[in-house]
Design brief:
This protein has seven helices and ten strands. It is α/β, with parallel strands linked by helices.
Length: 236
């Protein structure tokens, strides 16, 4: 099976192609760019296909980071994958951005903590564990204050590998070890590996983002409903 993995959840646009029969990556590329991911991600994927002498018809499934991360970035990546999956008549799969980051550190034997900047002193995070080959989740993805996460990780009393663009927000120590720059940011390979391990493919119409926190429109609506409720209570 040929899996195309796409990640537009953060500051980088990334894509990779995994051949599951040989368990080898045919190509991988990430680009740290100030341009919007909508201008970058499809040309990036097409370049991988060209370099590997593949066509879109050779791709059997497309996996994409579905959150957490940049709201705009996630929408761009998911919309692109939906359109491709519909057009090619192939399945797709949404993978947690944090899980993808954990799978990029697959060779680490022990606890892995992906950390992504959310806002102010809050981060998106999850706790995973790898035996050097297979990655499993041991604590659900969530949004936490940095200080709370620091205390949580200290309770493990064992080395923890921290990765992601928010890794340096933690106070590193002999226990908290930061991942190599080669795997610290999203590069697409983790999305491919996680999808190959799960094999729970979806129809494109079922692919949805997982933000972990309300988007602005939802926050505004919630606040508006709260204000309406207060007004109605005053009228009684």
């Amino acid at each position: 099976m040929q899996i195309l993995g796409i990640d537009t959840s953060g500051k980088v646009a990334a894509a990779a192609i995994l051949e599951t029969d040989t368990n080898c990556f045919l190509a991988q590329q990430m680009l740290y760019t100030k341009r919007t991911h909508s201008q970058v991600i499809l040309p990036l994927a097409e370049r991988l296909l060209f370099d590997t002498e593949k066509t879109w018809q050779d791709i059997d499934g497309i996996a994409v980071a579905n959150g957490p991360g940049s709201y705009t970035g996630l929408r761009i990546g998911i919309a692109a994958v939906k359109a491709l999956a519909f057009g090619l008549n192939i399945p797709c799969m949404g993978i947690s951005t944090l899980e993808g980051l954990a799978w990029q550190c697959q060779s680490w034997k022990g606890v892995i903590c992906p950390v992504m900047f959310a806002r102010q002193m809050f981060v998106y995070t999850g706790i995973y564990q790898s035996d050097g080959n297979f990655v499993t989740q041991i604590e659900s993805d969530s949004i936490l204050e940095v200080a709370v996460l620091q205390e949580k990780l200290a309770q493990y009393r064992m080395p923890v590998l921290v990765t992601g663009d928010g890794a340096d927000m933690l106070e590193l120590s002999e226990q908290l070890i930061i991942a190599s720059p080669a795997v610290r940011l999203q590069n697409g390979t983790g999305i491919c590996l996680a999808s190959a391990a799960q094999e729970s493919w979806q129809k494109p119409e079922n692919l949805m983002p997982e933000y972990l926190q309300l988007v602005k429109a939802e926050k505004d609506l919630k606040e508006r409903r709260k204000q309406i409720g207060l007004v109605e209570n005053l009228k009684k």
